[in-house]
Amino acid sequence: MSATPTLGEFEQVVLLAILRLDDRAYGVTIREEIHARTDRDPAPGALYTTLDRLEDKGLITSRLGDPTPQRGGRAKRYFQVSAIGVEAVARAQRSYRRLLEGLKLPGVANA
Amino acid sequence: MHKDRIAEWLLSQVTTRERAVSTVGDLTESAATHGAGWFWSNVARTLASLLWRGFGDAPGPMMGLALRAWLLSLALLLAALLCLVVLGAFFGLVYATLASASGSGLGAFAGGGVLVWVAKAVGLAVAVLCQFQVGRWLARRAPGREFSAWLALIMLQWIPAAVIGMGVALSTRNSGWLPSPLYLLFDLPCLAGALWVRRRAAR
Fold first, then answer.
1. What pLDDT, in 10s, does the model give residues B77-92?
2. A44 inside 8 A of chain B by CB
3. Closest Cα in chain B, distance from residue A71 (Å)
4. Average pLDDT of chain B?
5. A67: nearest CA partner in chain B
6. Where are the domains of chain A?
7. ipTM beyond 0.95?
8. A76 contacts in chain B (CB < 8 Å)
9. Which residue of B27, B32, B48 is in closest CB contact with A70?
10. CATH level 2 (architecture), domain A9-100
């Protein structure tokens, strides 16, 4: 089997949000992006735990930006999806697509 | 400003300093529209979430470590108790010899209960020191997850005690069997030991 780590549903959501935000992905914008795209309002606790876990697994990397006054002089931590992270999310999405292939969900168009 | 530093300190106990600082920065930025209540509520939830992550990612090894720490704690306390008994017997013998040699002078000293209080204070100090050492031992084996390891030890010690105490209390209808939350104070030196190691490692 492949060494690419398997992903939980929320981990996929977070990775996709980071990919969408490109180089603007930090805690606040990731939460906003998830809310805008999925109508979910993830708790910061859940988000930071997931970000820490993804970084520890090597699926994302982070770098510190410049400190800003509205954050009390604290730097933003910007995230980027690593090559392993891209592979993991692509693999998870492929699995979903294969599962959906030829499946007609009652009451859902173009499933 | 002061509240941010407290939040940073709290979060830095369960994650790296760098992550704690940026997380507090994010929460400060969002709190500008949500308010101070939102800020503290989310600091607490993030803290709980990160604390649980340290345990939940590897509950088996963490409980195994807690079990070893608990056994170490028992062994240390037993060894300390044995030393205290030997020392107590030695000093008791010396005291008895001196008392019989000098008459009633030393007897009045003992009657004041000073010796009993000294023995209690020494016993307490030794117990605190043992727990502190257990905390240090635990932290060295769970780098980055010191707080979670301590939490696992608390669960290992108190969940069975609470369940057994509750069962006995219900069957005997005597609430005196319930473990007092005050006994949790006994685990604070262990936490102090764990945090001491974490702080030194972070330097």
1. 899 889 888 888 887 7
2. yes
3. 5
4. 85
5. B25
6. 9-100
7. no
8. 22, 25-26
9. B32
10. Orthogonal Bundle (1.10)
